[in-house]
Design a protein that fits this description.
Layout lengths: L3 H23 E9 L7 E10 L5 E7 L3 E12 L2 E6 L3 E3 L3 E5 L4 E8 L8 E8 L4 E9 L1
Parallel strand pairs: 1-10
Antiparallel strand pairs: 1-2, 2-7, 2-8, 3-6, 3-9, 4-5, 4-8, 9-10
This protein binds copper (II) ion.
């Protein structure tokens, strides 16, 4: 049944395109903001609400921005009365759910800003998911 193969391959390709398009429409970012740092502090934190309206879990695996040397996904934890941060290699966003990045929890650690960022400025950060989805978001710098 070799004659079927090209048809099947074409169909798979079409379905992949549809899945990618619906994922892009189904994952969104709201309330994205970055906390202004005191002068001389080469580190900032970004917060947001991530929403997944796709029928599949989405794994956030990386973030990047041309305004910073590096962006890492962190989680603030309290252990034995001490507050610290750990790197979160990936964060699972369940179907039909929201995940809040907020002070004291998940945050984007923004290292070495390449320009001075003051309240009211905006920075663009792209979120990368394991599905291949890349989601650009605009973050507002706030006090
Ligand atoms: Cu951190």
């Amino acid at each position: 049944m070799k004659w079927r193969h090209p048809v099947f391959a074409g169909l798979t390709w079409a379905l992949t395109l549809v899945a990618t398009a619906s994922e892009a429409a189904g994952v969104s970012v709201r309330d994205a903001w970055v906390r202004e740092s005191p002068p001389g502090v080469a580190m900032m934190a970004g917060y947001m609400t991530l929403r997944n309206d796709t029928p599949r879990a989405q794994l956030l695996v990386a973030a990047n921005s041309s305004d910073f040397e590096a962006v890492m996904i962190h989680r603030t934890i309290v252990k034995d009365g001490m507050t610290g941060m750990v790197h979160a290699p990936q964060i699972e966003l369940l179907p039909a759910s929201s995940l809040i990045f907020a002070p004291g929890g998940y945050h984007l650690m923004l290292l070495s800003p390449k320009r001075t960022l003051r309240a009211g400025d905006r920075v663009d950060i792209t979120l990368e998911f394991r599905s291949g989805l890349r989601l650009p978001a605009s973050f507002e710098v706030r006090k």
